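Form 7-S
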Amino acid sequence: MDLLRRLRGLHGPLMLHQSGGCCDGSAPMCYPAGEFVIGDHDVLLGLLDLRLRVGEQPASAPGPGDIAPVWISGPQFAAWQHTQLVLDVVPGRGSGFSLESPEGCRFLSRGRVFDDAELTALATAEAVTGEGWARGERPAASTEPQVVAEAADACPVPGRGTSQNSM
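Output:
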């Protein structure tokens, strides 16, 4: 979140798109809001509230500049819909067009397969598509904390245990 807040300070409101294989493979790419054209069949994965710190829940509705929507293409969503994607930041420079490239770090998606109860709950949820977003559809506010101290707190990293800072 610190990186996203720094990028917002440099570039204004942000959006992210989970790349489908160009440039950095399947890296999440960060752009100024509106610079990457969202397709009608792209799927909104979530809205990141850039005001939040580890474990926090929002006390009030965020302003437009405090939200960074995260998108994925429709066909890629179909392949990954059974998986929780966790946005992480790791050292090293990516080779794509993402805003963090000059910062000496890059975004990385980590994945965790949803359990049966989560899959059942998700089966009843309607996804917001680019077409729906253009009509004003928005997802319900998250009831879960969005920010964790370490990626392993939300998505186990092979060969490592969970962080002592887990929620």
